[in-house]
Every structure is written in C-alpha cells, then in structure tokens.
Amino acid sequence: MRRGERPPLSDDGARRVIKERESYERALRKSGVPAENMPRKWISRTPEQMKQYLSDNKWQWRWKRRYTRPVEAAIAAVRQTSSLPPEDVDMRQVMKPFVKDLGFRDMCIVLKEQRGWRQAREFFEWMKLQIPYSPSVIAYTTLLGIYGQAGKLTLAEETLSEMLDAGVEPDEVAGGCMLEAYARWERYDTLLEFYEAMRQRGLVPSAHVYRTMIVTLYKAERHSDALMLWEDLLVEKLEPNFVLYAIIIHILNKEGRTEDAVHTFKDMRAAGHLPDELLYNTIICALGKLGRYQESEALYLDMKKQGIVPSKFTYTIMINVWSKAGRFASAAETLAEMQRSGCIADEVVYCSIINMYGKAGLYEEAEKIFKEMDTLGLLSHEKSYTSMAKVRAEAGRHAEALKLFDVMAEKGLLTTRMTWNTLLHCFVRIGDVEQATKVYNDMVEAGSANVVTYGNMINLYSKFQMVEDAENLLAEMRESGVKPDEYIYGSFVKLYCNSDMIDKATMVVQEMKDDGLVPDQIIKTNLMQAYGRVGRYDEAEELFWSLQDPGAVAVSSVLSIQESVCNEREMFPLGQALQSPIDTQILNQLLIKRAEAGELREAELLLDKLVEAGGCIVDTAAVLMINLYGRRGLFQKAKSLFNSLQKKDHPPSLYVYNTMIKLCAVCKELEEAIFVFDRMEENGRMFDAVTVSILVHAYTKEGRFKDAAGLMKRAKKVGVAMDTVAYNTSLKANLKSGNLKGALEVYGEMQEADIEPSAKTYTILISLFSKLGDLGRAVQAFEVLNSSEVGADEIAYSQMIHCYGCAGRPKEAADLFQEMETKGFKPNEVIYNNLLDAFARAGLFAEARLLLSDMRRKGCPPSSVTYLLLMSAYGSKGKPADAESLLHLMQDRGLYPDCRHYNEVIRAYGNVGKLSDACRIFYELKTVGIGLELGCFRTLVKIHLDHGQFEQGWQIYKDLSQSFTVDQNLYGIAVELCIGAGRRTEADQLKVELKGKGFSYRDKPPFPRPVPSIWKRSDHLAPVTDTGSLSN
Fold first, then answer.
1. Model pTM above 0.85
2. Is residue 535 part of a domain?
3. How many CB atoms lie within 10 A of CB 543?
4. Conformation bin of residue 4: beta by default, left when phi > 0, alpha when psi is -120 to 50
5. CB 953 within 8 A of CB 977
6. Distances (CA, A) of 32 to 23, 24, 340
7. Is 516 inside a domain boundary?
C-alpha cells in the first residue's frame, strides 16, 4: 500500500459509512443543494468485501437506486430483450452502445438487476467476452442466485462447475445461494449432500441460510435433519432469531425431547427474545408432562407478567396441569378466571374439566358438566363421549358407560381406534368376556388392533386366570407383527404371579430384558409379592433393593411381606425407610390413590400408617378422605379426621375447610358447619367466595334468611371478593326457598358491588321477576341476556315463555317459542308445557291441542304432566267433558292416568255443579285399578259442601271414611257437612275425634284449593307493569 493511501474498510465499517453517507446526502437534498454539488466519494473495498456487500445488502441494489446513466440504460436495454424470442436476441448489438462506459463493477450491477434468467444468462455470456472481465466469485454468485430463484437448478449446477473450472473457488455466499435454491425447490437430499460438501471445504453458511434450511426441513417434517443443522449453527456460534427458536422448540416437543425443548426455551429467554403465547403454551404443557408443576405455574405467571393474555388453550392446559398435580382447587380457580376473562369454554375445555373431576373422584360433578355440554349442543366429537365413558367406568357405573357407546354408534362416532379401545376397556372392567371378544374380533378384522388392544384382552384373561387363552393371544399378536411392550409383559407377569406360576413369571422378566426393555416398579412389585407368598424371601428382598426409588405400591407390598415374616427375621429395615422424607410422600401418594379409587379400608390402613410415622397429611389426601367418608355416610369419621388436622402451627388449608363445611351442609349439620367456619377464622384462614356460597346455600335451605344476608354483608365488609358464582348461589337459594324479597336484596347488593351478571344470573332473574309478577323487568333481563355474546339458552327461553304465560300473554309466548326454534334450539318437554300452559290460561284450547300434535311430530311426545296441565285448564274454564276426554286420549297414547288426573276431572265437574258425574269419575278409580285415593275423596266431599249438598256429601264421607287415614282438612269438611245437614250430634263427635288426634278446629277453617299438579301455577301474580329497570 502506497504512502497516503487509505486501507480498505472492513465489511461492517463499509456498510456503516455507506448508510451514514446516504443519510447525509438525503439531508442535503431536502435542504435544496443541487445534485451537481453533492459530494461523491467511493469507498475502497476488497473484492471479498464487495462480494459480502452484494450478498448481505440486497435491499441496496434495487431499481430505485440512483445508478449512473449508462448503467441504468444498460439495465433497461437488457430487460427489454425479454419481449423478444430467444433466437432473435443478440446481446452484442444490445450492449454495443455501453461497452466503453461499463467497468467490471457496472457489469455486475447490470447482471444483478436482471429479472429473467434468460437475460441474465445471455448477459453473462457477453460479459465474459469483455476486456474488464476477469473470473470473479461476485459474478458467478450473482448468476447462481438468479438461477436459484427461477428454479433452474441444472443451470445453477453447470454454472458452479464452470466456476470451478475457471479456477474460482466458491465461498460461503456462493454455497449459500445453492443451499437456498435446493431448499426453495424442495431438493432435500441434494441440499444435505451439498451442505456436507461445503463443511468438508471449511465453508460455513450464514445464519440466514441456516434459518432457510431449517425452516424448509421443518415443513417437510424431516426433524432429525433440522436438529442436526441446529446443532451445527450453535457450534458455529451464529445467533438464531425468534422464528428459529420457535421452530426448534416445536420440533423437540414433537420428537418427545421435552427436556431439550425446555432448555431451548430458557436459552431463548436468555438471548433476549420474548416468546409468544403459543410457545408459552407448548412449554407449560411440556413441563406438566414432566411432572414439574411448580415450573408450569411459574411460567404461567411469567406469561401474564409479560402482558400476554392467556387464551382458551392456555387455560385448558393449566386445568390439565392442575388436574395431574392433584390441585383441583387451583384448576377450579383457573376455570373461574377463564370465565371472568370472557373466554367461552368449548368442547375441549369441557372434556378437560370432565377428566379433572373424574381424577378427583367427583363423578357427580362430571355428570353435571356432561349434561351441560349436551344442553349447549357441544357433544359433537367422540372424545367427549369417550372421556365421560372413562369417568363412569372408573366410578363403577359400567352399564351407563356402555350406553354412551350406543349413543355414539347411533351418531356414527365410533370411528377411531381410541374409542374402540375404550369400549373394549369397559367390557374388560366389567368382566364381559363374550362382548370383549366380539369387539376384539371386529378390531382385528378392521386392522385397528394395536398394543393397547392386545393389552386389554390379556388383562381380561389375567383377571379370570385364562392362562392358555392369554398365551395363544400373545402368539397371535407376534404373528401379526405387533411387538409386546412393557404393559403386555407386565400383564403376563401379573397373570403368572396370580396363578402361582412363579417360574414362568421369572422367565417373562428375563425375556423382557432380552428384548431391551427394563422391568418397571409394577412388574418387580408383582413378582416380589409372588415371591413373598411362596416363601422365597431372598429373591423378594433382592427385588426390593433393586428398586432405586420405591413407589407407594412397593412400600405397601413390603409392609405386608414384613408382617408375614416378622416373627422369623427382619428382612427389611422399614424403620430406617420411614424416617426418610420420601416415605411420608409415598404414603400420601398411596393414600390419594386408594381414596380416589374409593377403597375405604385400604385408605384407612394407610392413614393409620401415616399417622404412626408422624407424617403430615397433604391437603389433597385430606380432601379426598373427607369426601370418601361423606359418600359412605360416615360423617363422624370425617369429623374426627378433620379435627386431627387442626394444628396451631400448621392449620388446614382453605380448600380443606371448604370441603368440610360443604360436607356438613350436605349432611344437614348446619351448626357444625358454622362451628368449622368459626374455627377457620380463629386459625387465621380467611374465608373466600366459595365458603360464602356454601354457607349461604345452607342458610337459605334451612330458612335462615337473616343469617344468609348477614354473611353476605360481612363478606363485603371484610373485603372478600365475591364473584358471580357466589351471588348466583345466594339468588337461587332465596328463590327456591320462596324468599323473593331476599333475592331482590341480593341482586341489589350484586349491582352495588359492580359484579358483572352471568348468563345464569339473568336466567335466575327472569324466574324471580316472573314470580314477582314484574313482566317488564323480566323482559328486560331476557333482552340483555339475549343480546350478549353468550345469548339466551333453552332454560332462559323456558323461563320467559312461562313468564308470558303467567301474565296472560300467549302471543308473546308463541313468538318467543318460534324465535327459539329459529335459532336452532330444540324445545324439550318443559318448554312445550310452558307454552301449552300459556295457551290454556288464555282459553286457546285449539292452539293447545295443535301443540300436542306438534310435540308428537317433533319427537317430544306429551307426558302425563302435559295432560295434567291441560285438564286443569279445562276445569278452570268450565269444560269438564273436554277434561274427561283427555283421560281416554292418554290411554290411547299409551299413558296411564293416575289419581292426579282423575282429581282434576272430579274438580272440573264439581266446578260446574255436575256432582253425579264427579261421583262417577271417583268410583271409576276402582275400575281402572288405581283404587280410591285420599286427595280425590277430599275433592269429592268438598264440592258437595261448596254446592250445598250437605246430606249427600255426609253420606259419601260416612260410607268411605273408614278406607282412609283422615287428615285435619277432611275432618273440617265433614264437620261443615254435618252442620249444614243439621246433624249437630255427629258434628260434635267429629270435633271430639279431631281434638283426640291433636288437631284443632276453627269455626270456619280455610280450605285452600290444593295445587292441581306438580307444575306450580302463578295465579297470584300482581298486575303486569312494564315499568321498572334492572338498575333500580
């Protein structure tokens, strides 16, 4: 380098200077400096730096860049040749005007700016004939990039060979162009071969090329090759970007390398990249599979801390994680948080909740969720039915589980292997060998049998000690090409151990080892138990010490074996084992397992062992045991267990307190529930909305409305965050108990607390306003619900139709019914009955009869309650003959009227004074086989009293009273009949009898008309007013 000459800038420095100069020139142009006065200064770069600049700064070389006029004219001239046939293009004539003005750098620019591969090829051939040209990696690399983008891989490979022949050694950029071309056009094998050739020459592609290759291989599902490139990228210390991290994490997760996926996620965070929701969900789920629940929770909290809003999928994953961890209270809290956030639970979420309740042993709760799914129309996938079938099978309700498969068969959902295996598992659980064999044969014919199928059948044969059938099935399995897994080998070990064929069991374990499989704890424990039964204690002891981390079952087996040989020798130092921290954990795990399975005797034995060892009962185990005692009706045992958990230094958790309070409420031990509540506060445990919901429901059920209201006010005063569920519980409890005023007060408190009502809240409010006779507010509540995102459901429509019927608005009820059908809701019997009741109240009997036909036509045939409603309406409107005709119509439809229906007909004839027909219907009870009934008898004598037929009514009472246990009302009617007939002596005798039975008689006792049916009518409603607002 000559004196005074600047050394070439580095590549990074060159780019920096260029950008700074462009910014400077841009500022000069904005300030109005003429173009001829703009400073022009070229930056000195080596050929290698120029090559790198051309490759890494593609955005610099665009048509909008200001080139010299000869260069721009040359670019345009070459591009214009694209409109000519290839044979008519003479590049020498095209470029003749520009030969003197173009140097090598200018020619590279013209080549770079070509859009068509033909023009690039022709120009390059011309370029090689020019004097300034010398074989350069820049020109060849530019041409390789153009061929690669156009998919001309053969021309690219020929150009690369020509490049080598010309003595130009390809560099990383040229190799990167070829790799990108192979990746772009899905030449995967050639891509990997060329990559290996580059690495042998010592060439390392750029980070951009690595990203392109890995993304391409990921899309082609060639995960092992993508991971190989990822490892090379890390070795070369190239910096991955966010997309590359995300792809590698998904690949590792799919390949089952969960631990590596977690490490990569941590490296991504350390590199400063913020994961998105999908990556958070993936790693949270992966940590849950590894059993690292605390890390899952920490990551979930970190996700929310970063401002990422959890989606429905995030909540579903967390519910599954809590369910696996046995933290069902946290799962319920997550579900509540999901509902508060506005996420609408879909079929997947509901299935997760069903699985959670199934694992917790809360089978009734799972049934409620399943029914709710059916109501919402979410039962569209076989997984939902399969999940519920598994829960019912675990609960021992196998017949109900099998009914679900019948429903699935009707809907055509029995399609996947998982469903068939679940059906087979149910038959195995109930021990139905015939049906299980039939399902197995169908699966074999369909080619759907897999390891799980064979495992279920072998398990069935093991249950019935069918050794020969199991061995034949194993041979058939091997012939079909299915290789036995650990479960199959374990089933055979269990079968041979239960059949006292210990030597065969030992041979199976050895065969398993020969196949490269390691016997797990269950297999070793089964074999250890068998050795213990036959007195082979040395081998049992050897198996026990071979367990690195003995599980709960192994410890239980050791306990039983130790007890059987305790008088002979001390085989196992169990005292030392029980002193280690892991033993109490094992006992808790086993206790949870037994309690979930409902095995009370075994669970109590483990509980005693745990207490003897001085271990602490975990909350999950305590809750499961309290619930188990509750299901068995052993309230005192649950109470004793709960009292044993009361420790000053470590009182039970809120979850345990709530469980005990709920059990007390269910067992109608309200005072005990209050006592537990007080102790909870004494121990420093603050109650929450769940506690309030439980106690409010119990208070209102016992009619203690003031206490319920007081608890709500107290919760508000101490700052307990009452949620929608708690207020709904209070509203519903007050409504059921008839305390309408209290319900209104609760709703007012809910509004004051600014709690957003849920769909269930509005449904309860509709029922409340209906009972209050406030149609306007009921309509307003329904409209608010219907206009919300959730929309009104069948229950809300049913309540509103009933409300219109009570208000004497049949047209509005019919319109609402029509709207409901238009939205795709299928009316059930209750909804039809509400609409029919609305028609009948208004005297629209023709419409009511048409509705009966419509019910039959739409697959919802009228029930006895439906006919009872219509009979009552006919009677109230003075149409006894029509009411009687319904008796015959019911019999024609295959329904058998009971005493309630005859009672309505008797009352109907009595209302119009046709007492002889009323007597005829009454005595007809004997003919139809029902027999004389007290309610009908009371109605018959009462209508005689009402119509002044005292003597006839007295004779009927005198003749038939010996057939019934006469109550206070009937005695009062008889006294009035005697007084009306002038029979003072008989009346006095009846009064004496009435007093002797502990009843009191008033001169004019009220005889209210009994409710005609189980369908509660609301004739007492106040006049309808459309005034009022939900906010008042």
1. no
2. yes
3. 24
4. left
5. yes
6. 15, 13, 60
7. yes
Q: Give the range of the structural domain holding residue 543, as residue numbers without chain letter.
A: 506-559
How far is residue 607 from each of residues 395, 554, 584, measured CA to CA in Å? 22, 17, 11
Tokens in use for 830? 């209750």
* Phi–psi pair at 543, nearest 5 degrees: -65, -40
Asked if residue 833 is part of any domain, the answer here is no
> Can you spell out the DSSP letters for 682-697?
HTTPPP-HHHHHHHHH
Whether residue 537 is contained in a domain is answered as yes
Helix (H) or strand (E) holding 679: helix 670-682
What stretch of H or E contains 189? helix 188-200
Q: Provide Rg for the chain, Cα atoms.
A: 43
In 3D, which of 851, 819, 854, 858 has the Cα closest to residue 835? 851
Query: DSSP label at 269?
Result: H
Contact 639, 626 (CB under 8 A): no
CA 54 to chain centre: 53
Secondary structure of residue 862 in the 3-state scheme: coil
Residues for the chain: how many in total? 1032
- Residue 738: its pLDDT value, please? 66
Name the one residue in this structure whose structure tokens are 């892991």: 582
User: What is the arithmetic mean of pLDDT over 880-901?
Assistant: 82
**Continuous H helices in 10-152:** 11-30, 47-56, 69-80, 91-95, 104-112, 117-128, 137-150
Q: Which residues contact 49 (CB under 8 A, 6 or more apart)?
A: 8, 9, 10, 11, 14
Half-sphere exposure of 440 (CA within 13 A, CB side): 24
Number of H helices, E strands in the chain: 56, 0
pLDDT digits (tens, 9 = 90+) for 568-601: 444 444 344 444 334 566 677 777 877 887 878 7
Name the domain count of the chain. 1
The total of other beta-carbon atoms located within 10 Å of residue 811's CB is 11
Q: What is the separation of C-alpha 716 from the centre of its chain, rounded to a whole number of angstroms?
A: 32
- The runs of H, that is alpha helices, within 255-397 are 258-270, 277-289, 293-305, 312-325, 328-340, 347-360, 363-376, 382-394
Cα–Cα distance for residue pair 820/831, rounded to 1 Å: 10
